[in-house]
Fold TetR/AcrR family transcriptional regulator.
Amino acid sequence: MPVPLPARTESPRARRRGELCVRLMAAAEELLDDGVTLADLGVDRLTQQAGVSRSSFYVYFEDRADLMRLWFSSVVDEIVEATRGWWAVGPAPDRGAVRDALGAIVTVYRLHARLMAATFDAATHDADLRRLTDVLISESVDGLRRHIIRGQKAGWVDPGLHPESCATHLTWMAERTFNQLLPGAPPRAVTQLTETYTYIVWGVLYRRVD
Amino acid sequence: MPVPLPARTESPRARRRGELCVRLMAAAEELLDDGVTLADLGVDRLTQQAGVSRSSFYVYFEDRADLMRLWFSSVVDEIVEATRGWWAVGPAPDRGAVRDALGAIVTVYRLHARLMAATFDAATHDADLRRLTDVLISESVDGLRRHIIRGQKAGWVDPGLHPESCATHLTWMAERTFNQLLPGAPPRAVTQLTETYTYIVWGVLYRRVD
DNA sequence: GTCCGCTCGGACACCTCGTCCGGACGTTCT
DNA sequence: AGAACGTCCGGACGAGGTGTCCGAGCGGAC
């Protein structure tokens, strides 16, 4: 008697979809590194680069945006997880701790910088993809907002700043600078970005007024 | 004997091109206000909204990006001009003066918010348009960078911050928050944006360390 | 050996883009 | 008045990419 629910860990269909997602996005990254524009990155060229037929692509994905949605979903948790270190910056915030926390976010983001930038670009034209990027942004804003409010109640963040608005500004700044500056950036530039990011966040949120 | 250079103020051809640009971009703004996506804003629908035939469109413009380039070029000077007030914030910077200067930038930007956001989106796919947006960004970064250096030499800006990197971060923050938050924002939200923008810039650049 | 699932290439209709052309209209010059 | 000119329009066209569909081939499982 065979297993009633044969290997319910994952549908072979879904597994194959996942495998192809990895392969195709890796191919996309190669092409983007070679200077191919996202607009010129059609399904044809993409599948060709990955060594998969175009018809097979449409077996597993609705369209190019569907592929990017799947990839993005798997990465967004990674990013969100990396931001948790920031919220842990507790009472009596230390500048070194803040830099380490922000540096960890930058490091994680950098791993996917080129594809993240491409995803945010593609989100302009695909409503579903746009919803996913919005989730990442709003979760970041929300986490930072609560962090700010906690700090204000505890007295180590200026009570005069507007938590929601300030969190929004800092989040958009991070998103934009990451996507604009990180793809293909040399280590030196990454360090500089982290430093300035820290400088601004520190100056806006934690610096003692005295 | 007729005029050798008949009314050399402006070619009638170029004038007509300018008129159509205004009409078409106004039509584009209407459609975007009605919730039409930039991706769905084809030449067909655009010209139909403006009451111009599609064939006439191609007489005066290479493609949709060409239209947007012409419009953007005419508006970028306006924006750059508005930022000059910021650089004028002189020795012994006053918080009220900073808010007024940044508020002026927000006010000007707001006039074109929806179309500016659309232009930055379209710049993703059109290299020439991208170059134009990059000019706006890099001019802003450059102006701010020089402003920072001037302040550092005069002693009213922290010499410890990196002028280029910091200017880049603040500029991208402004671009992103403007394009994301200003389109269709009620006056209350605009005020809040200006306040937070001022709060951050003040805290990062001018606040006395004491 | 036969069935089943997967992959592939190719063909197809569809859409948008950018080009091109002939006809219609109004103005200007003779 | 009539001719010449510029402008606009609708329509037709090919090119290129998208998403769908089908039949052929191939390997593993029964």
Remarks:
- Chain A touches chain B at residues 37-39, 121, 124-125, 127, 160-162, 165-166, 168-170, 172-173, 175-177, 180-181, 192-193, 195-197, 199-200, 203-204, 207, 210 (CB under 8 Å).
- The two ends of chain A are 75 Å apart (CA to CA).
- Residues 92 and 158 of chain A are 13 Å apart (CA to CA).
